[in-house]
C-alpha cells in the first residue's frame, strides 16, 4: 500500500487540490477516491494516482468540505465517517450555507442548510449518536452576503440580521 497526503479534500469536484487526497461522489470529476461518504468505507482499497491505498481510521490530519455537507441526505453517517477518518486532534474545515440566507435553498440539490446549533450533536450531544469520541467546535465564522458587504453591515449586527449572512465556516477538532 502507498502513502497518501495527510489532508482529504471531500467533494473535490469544482475545487480539486493537487496536494490533497481528492474525494467526490461523482467519477466524472476524476477524484482520487470516488466515494459516498455516508456509506461504509473502512477497509476499502482504492486505486489512486498515489497507488493503491486502504481506507483506514485516523488516516488524515485534516479534512476540508467546501459546499458539500448540504448535499448529503444521511449527514450523521457522513459526519461519523469523517470523524473516524481523522486522527485525534485532526481538524475538519467546513463551509456550508447559512439556513436563513437567500442562497441556502436556491440550489435544488441542497437537502439542508445550517446555523449555529447545527453542530451540537457532533460536539456536546455526541453521546446521543452513540459516539465515544467527538468533535470540539474550534471556530465558527459568518460569511457576509454581498448585500451586507455593500451596506457595510458590522459583524456584531449579523445575528440580528440573519439574512445578511451568506454562509458559515466552521472548524471542528476531533477529541
Strand content: 25-35%
As laid out across the biggest beta sheet, the strand order is: 3-2-1-6-7-9-8
Report the helical percentage. Answer: under 10%
CATH superfamily annotation: Vaccinia Virus protein VP39
What is the chain-wise order of helices and strands? EEEEEEHEEHE
Can you count the beta strands? 9
Could you give the topology of this structure?
Blueprint: E1 7-10, E2 21-24, E3 33-34, E4 45-48, E5 51-54, E6 60-66, H1 75-85, E7 86-97, E8 135-144, H2 146-151, E9 165-174
Parallel strand pairs: 1-2, 1-6, 2-3, 6-7
Antiparallel strand pairs: 4-5, 7-9, 8-9
What are the defining features of this structure?
175 residues, mainly beta, 33% strand, Rossmann fold, two-stranded antiparallel sheet, seven-stranded mixed sheet, 10% helix, 2 helices, globular
Describe the structure.
The protein is mainly beta and 175 residues long. The protein has one domain (7-174): Rossmann fold, CATH 3.40.50.150. The chain has helices at residues 75-85, 146-151; strands at residues 7-10, 21-24, 33-34, 45-48, 51-54, 60-66, 86-97, 135-144, 165-174.
Give a brief description.
The chain has helices spanning 75-85, 146-151; strands spanning 7-10, 21-24, 33-34, 45-48, 51-54, 60-66, 86-97, 135-144, 165-174.
Amino acid at each position: 500500500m502507498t502513502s497518501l497526503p495527510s489532508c482529504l479534500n471531500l467533494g473535490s469536484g469544482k475545487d480539486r487540490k493537487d496536494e490533497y487526497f481528492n474525494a467526490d461522489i461523482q467519477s466524472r470529476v476524476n477524484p482520487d477516491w470516488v466515494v459516498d461518504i455516508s456509506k461504509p468505507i473502512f477497509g476499502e482499497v482504492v486505486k489512486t494516482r498515489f497507488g493503491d491505498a486502504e481506507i483506514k481510521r485516523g488516516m488524515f490530519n485534516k479534512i476540508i468540505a467546501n459546499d458539500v455537507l448540504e448535499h448529503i441526505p444521511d449527514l450523521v453517517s457522513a459526519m461519523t465517517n469523517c470523524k473516524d477518518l481523522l486522527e485525534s486532534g485532526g481538524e475538519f474545515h467546513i463551509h456550508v450555507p447559512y439556513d436563513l440566507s437567500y442562497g441556502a435553498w436556491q440550489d435544488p440539490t441542497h437537502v439542508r442548510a445550517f446555523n449555529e446549533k447545527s453542530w451540537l450533536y457532533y460536539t456536546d450531544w455526541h453521546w446521543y449518536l452513540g459516539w465515544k469520541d467527538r468533535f470540539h467546535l474550534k471556530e465558527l465564522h459568518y460569511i457576509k452576503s454581498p448585500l451586507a458587504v455593500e451596506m457595510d453591515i458590522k459583524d456584531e449586527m449579523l445575528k440580528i440580521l440573519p439574512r445578511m449572512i451568506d454562509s458559515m465556516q466552521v472548524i471542528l477538532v476531533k477529541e
